[in-house]
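Re: the 175-residue chain
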Amino acid sequence: MLPNIVLIGFMGCGKSSVGRRLASLTGHRLVDSDDLVAQSEGRTISDIFAMVGEPGFRKIEENVLAGLVGVVGIVLATGGGAVLGEANRAVLKKIGTVAWLDADPDVLFERATRSNRRPLLQTEDPRGTFDRLLASRRPIYEGTADFRMDSTGLAHDTVAQTLLDRTMRLRAHAG
């Protein structure tokens, strides 16, 4: 049985797009933690942020992620801030192999601002906010991930296949 694969990384790194392709390659079911949070609350992520702020959102996210421990056959695409809580980082490692999707900051920013569905970027200075958040989160992604994958300039299919190959190599060396 293929292990679960957990995708972490900053907004715009391609977790959802690559996750869909990875799910197709593995036969696993794609699970998006932001979708689960929205479903659990019956409202959008933006509405949740507006009603309970980021701390409230993070608590809901923590509960949703904890509910995935023991579930098999999934590719989990997490929200960009899912790694912020220490409890979440431990839970993600229990769920499966943790892969950090990364890319050049300019590429990430361009992708992240294609839509206005990013509550954390609804500021006077979206690029400044983006840069500060990215700088603060990169060490956390690095400390949480089993490995890092730079997707800059790569097709989603290529990234998905490489992630699967690296996951299987990691598993072979561990077991």
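The two ends are 13 Å apart (CA to CA).
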